[in-house]
Structure formats: C-alpha cells, structure tokens
Amino acid sequence: MIGEVHTLTDLGSAVRRARVAAGMTQDEFAAALGTTQRYLSELERGRPKLLDDRLVELLVRSGVRLLYESD
Fold first, then answer.
1. How confident is residue 25, by pLDDT bands cut at 50, 70 and 90?
2. What's the confidence (pLDDT) of residue 24?
3. What is the C-alpha to C-alpha distance for residues 61 and 71, in angstroms, rounded to an integer?
C-alpha cells in the first residue's frame, strides 16, 4: 500500500500499519525503533509531542510530499 501523509494522524496511521504488519506490539516496536512505548502510542494517535501539524502543513505547502509504503 502506498499513501500520502497530509497530517500527523496520517503519519501515525502509517506507523501503526507498519507495526501491525511486522506483527509487533507497541512495546516491541518502540524498542526496535529506540523510543518509548508512550511516544509510539502518541505518534500512532497522531499526537506526538516532538512533532506538530505545523511541520506537516509546512511540508505540504512547500510542495514536499511525504509518502509511505507498506506491505
């Protein structure tokens, strides 16, 4: 599946799909990524504290496309 990221919610959904496709729990995936389960949970819900919608909006407005690909 290929999709385009327009919001942090889109980004979180893409990360969640990647985790589920890998057959991992949030704890396992977070450890593999070198982050915490809490941050991963926030990211999957589209509410990470280290990113905000302004960044994604700025990228979209500048013509930068964020794409994801998952199996």
1. very high
2. 94
3. 28
Residue 70 bridge partners (DSSP): none
The residue among 5, 3, 7 whose CA lies nearest residue 52 is: 7
In terms of Cβ atoms closer than 10 Å to its own Cβ (0-12, 13-18, 19+), residue 38 is exposed
Radius of gyration of the chain (CA): 12
pLDDT category at 62 given cuts 50, 70, 90 is low
Give the fold, CATH level 3, of 2-69.
Answer: 434 Repressor (Amino-terminal Domain) (1.10.260)
Question: Of 44, 67, 69, 41, which is closest to residue 56 (Cα–Cα)?
Answer: 67
Determine how many CB atoms are found less than 10 A away from the CB of residue 1: 9
